[in-house]
Amino acid sequence: MSWSQWQNSGEDKNSKIILKGSGTTPILTLTPTSVITIIPTKIPTLIPTNTPIPIPTLTSIPTPTNKPTVTPTKIPLTPTHTPVPTLTKTPTVQPTLTSKPNPTLTIAPTQPVFYLTTNIISPTNNSVVSKNSTITIKTSNSTSSTINKVEIYVNGNIQCTIYNAPYECSLNVPNVSGVTYKISSKVYDTSGNSAYSSLITVHSSSSNPFLDFLCRVFKYCR
Fold it and tell me: Do 120 and 212 lie in a common domain?
């Protein structure tokens, strides 16, 4: 703190300022009534003496030795010639077109369809015939070849054998009422093939007209 700061501070002006050195004895004690006189000290003037200043000895710098110049040896570069492979063109083999002959279409002859049939067309199935009468059994026959003969069966027995058209046979119905007859036919061709017809049933008339009616209309025959 400076003197002016101390004067302007709020400290007690009757207090003392004690300056101490490194020891315990105060160097200076100031009170507000103390008067400090500053006596300037005379700074001694430095008078130069005639002492010669040593001049440093200059040491000569050695001259650098010239380094030998290295002359590069020129190596001749001989280019190596690499031969370029020769491209050999492979000839393209053109396929030889061989003309093929047009196939000959051979039409096979149509084989005839074989057939051989026979049917009883009269009397009709489940019909009533008069007793003590003669009926005609008619057949219908067809074949892809030639008919040799036709056989007509009544109740499993051969009734007629016909070699020429019309292929018909007569049946004598006995004087017995209520009789059932089963009729069929069999046809042969010239090659020995044969075929059967369907079996039909006919009935002889009875003594009771009502039963005959049932047989003709409702096929109820007994």
Answer: yes
Q: How many domains does the chain have?
A: 2
User: 123 and 202 in contact (C-beta within 8 Å)?
Assistant: yes
Assessment of whether the complete model's pTM goes beyond 0.85: no
Judged by phi (left if over 0) then psi (alpha if -120 to 50, else beta), residue 155 lies in left
SS3 string, 94-106, reads: CCCCCCCCCCCCC
Range of the domain at 196: 116-217
**Which amino acid, residue 169?**
C
| Same domain as 120, residue 29 | no
Euclidean distance between the first and final Cα of the chain, in Å?
168
The model's pLDDT over 176-201, given as tens digits with 9 standing for 90+, comes to 888 899 999 999 999 999 999 999 99
The CATH code of the domain that includes 136 is 2.60.40.10
Does 79 reside within a domain? no
Q: How far is CA 184 from CA 52, 97, 164, 167, in A?
A: 180, 71, 18, 13
The set of residues, in sequence order, having a beta carbon less than 8 Å from that of 91 and lying 6+ positions away, is none
For 35-74, write each residue's pLDDT tens digit: 555 555 555 555 555 666 666 666 666 666 666 666 766 6
60 occurs within a structural domain: no
Helix, strand, coil proportions of the chain in percent (round to 5)? 5, 30, 65
